[in-house]
TrEMBL record:
Entry-linked InterPro entries: Glyco_trans_2-like, Nucleotide-diphossugar_trans
Protein name according to UniProt: Glycosyltransferase 2-like domain-containing protein
UniProt keyword annotations, A-Z: Cell membrane, Glycosyltransferase, Membrane, Transferase, Transmembrane, Transmembrane helix
TM region positions: 277-299, 305-325, 337-357
SUPFAM superfamilies: Nucleotide-diphospho-sugar transferases (SSF53448)
Domain Glycosyltransferase 2-like: 33-161
Source organism, top-level taxon: Bacteria
Keyword Transmembrane helix: yes
Location within or outside the cell: Cell membrane
Length: 365
């Protein structure tokens, strides 16, 4: 089963042709609204905003900053930006969230309503576009499929020392491999709000976040779910210059809470998407579950040799798939550490799933 996913989805995506470079002529005629929702992230904004306002995009764009109940000096900083960039910068202030509404979804809704343009491009305050052509290249995704409604981008995490950072980047690679390659094969099911674009008409077709406005997570993947169900077409733009880069969680607890929040939206996916993801994740987890079961039958030489051959074959196959994927997405993957990272990730994935059964409260920020 794992080999089928690797051959059917991952490897073809890793070998897909490079996208048109920003220096080449392209469909860059439509203005774009860049939308960033922030909550107490002034220092991140000081780094991010200059990079956004410096994007090379002749058709014009605006930056819509949504200040969601910040208690730092975000508002004062935004007021300065309004003076320096009249007509290019717009501030939306959220002073409170209605009872029972997910704060970020409510804030994003207000920001989208305030945006001038039809095409909307989203990122987070802790993200950084890797190039000044990010906006241009993401916008070109709308020209795919004879007029796409959603553009799915990739957002990696910065490299740092330590096992936690390696696991975060491996998980991000594996998640990106799934949602990008599935979409490339015509089966889109999610995107990441750190690098995602869609049209206002697409947002309106789903009545915004109405179907999940009270659920904390899902401002990106559940929006894509609803939009695809309504007939929206999704394109993939994943070359390096069109990516964003984020700072990863620095503690195991922070990462645990982040992943638990992200995975909580999965129960709302369409049945076909849940089956597809479940088969991939389940077959990987089952491999590790069956290993001790085989050993329990007997520690004889024949069992050990057979198990060793299976492990070696699976590891080699994973290397043949994930190394090209990492190269395609321009993220580093230590080949020698792959077996350990894979085992730890799927063990944690099972733990995250079990933890969601306890229905502990989730929080944004």
């Amino acid at each position: 089963m794992q080999g089928w996913f690797w051959g059917r989805y991952f490897r073809p995506f890793a070998r897909r042709p490079a996208e048109t470079e920003a220096s080449e002529p392209g469909p860059d005629a439509e203005p774009v609204s860049l939308i960033v929702c922030t909550h107490n992230e002034l220092e991140n904004l000081r780094e991010l905003v200059p990079l956004l306002l410096s994007q090379d995009y002749p058709a014009g764009f605006e930056l819509v900053l949504i200040d969601d109940r910040s208690q730092d000096d975000t508002y004062l900083y935004a007021q300065q930006l309004s003076q320096y960039y009249p007509g290019r910068f717009r501030l939306v202030t959220v002073s409170h969230t209605p009872a029972g509404f997910a704060p970020k979804k409510y804030a994003l809704t207000l920001g989208i309503k305030a945006a001038r343009y039809e095409r909307l491009l989203f990122t987070d305050a802790d993200c950084r576009p890797v190039s000044l052509d990010w906006l241009r290249l993401m916008q070109r995704g709308f020209a795919q499929k004879n007029g796409a409604d959603i553009v799915l981008g990739f957002s990696g995490y910065a490299e740092a020392p330590g096992l936690l950072n390696q696991l975060i980047r491996y998980e991000t690679l594996l998640t990106g491999a799934q949602y990008l390659s599935f979409a490339w094969a015509g089966r889109p099911y999610m995107g990441v709000g750190r690098n995602l674009a869609y049209t206002r008409a697409t947002f309106n077709s789903t009545k915004g976040f109405a179907s999940h406005i009270r659920r904390l997570s899902g401002d990106d993947d559940l929006l894509v779910q609803d939009a695809v169900a309504a007939g929206a077409r999704a394109a993939v733009v994943a070359d390096y210059e069109a990516q964003t880069l984020s700072q990863p969680a620095e503690t195991w607890g922070a990462w645990w809470r982040q992943k638990r929040r992200h995975l909580s939206a999965g129960s709302r996916y369409r049945a076909a998407d849940r089956r597809r993801i479940g088969l991939f994740m389940g077959s990987n987890a089952l491999f590790y579950v069956l290993t001790p079961a085989v050993l329990a039958v007997g520690w004889n030489r024949e069992n050990l040799v057979s198990l060793g051959i299976i492990w070696l074959a699976r590891t080699l196959l994973a290397l043949l798939v994930y190394v090209p994927l990492a190269r395609r997405l321009r993220t580093t993957l230590p080949p020698l550490a792959l077996p350990a990272l894979d085992f730890l990730y799927f063990a944690l994935y099972c733990a995250w799933g079990l933890s969601l059964l306890r229905r502990r409260p989730l929080q944004w920020k």
